[in-house]
Known about the structure:
Blueprint: E1 10-19, E2 23-32, H1 44-48, E3 54-59, E4 64-69, E5 73-79, E6 89-97, E7 102-109, H2 118-122, E8 129-133, E9 138-143, E10 147-152
Amino acid sequence: MSDDFFKIPKLEHLVSFWIHPEGRVPGTLFLREQSLHHIGEESPVELLNQTEPFVVINRQDLNELRFYSKASIVRVEYQHTMPDNPDLDAINAEIHMMDGSLITGQIRGSFCPDRARLYDYLNKIEDHFVVLYQEQDQVTLINKKYVIYAKSI
């Protein structure tokens, strides 16, 4: 039997990591061609919010694979075109980070009417990373452990 039979098809997705204490790290994540939760490929936030404590990063500057602790990833930035969907709720947010960064953007999703506040979104225990949509199709995933405070704007 071929070893390829046991491989899960993955795609490399270009991202920029902010790792504590290294700083900015250019690289790629390996995402499933088919998400376990919806039609289409896996998203970076799906991968980072999984329970495994480490993630494989292909360091483009060093041309090597590394296994980074998700706890050391401060944030992840990448380009993604968000389709216009009037059915999605939006929360405008300003997030103040431990490294002094101020990140503003919009949190989008389908929220339960009684759980549609920024406070509720930030307190989702199963999600370790917050998805913030910014201008020019920029997406920033923020590790909640590095947030000092957030506010709705």
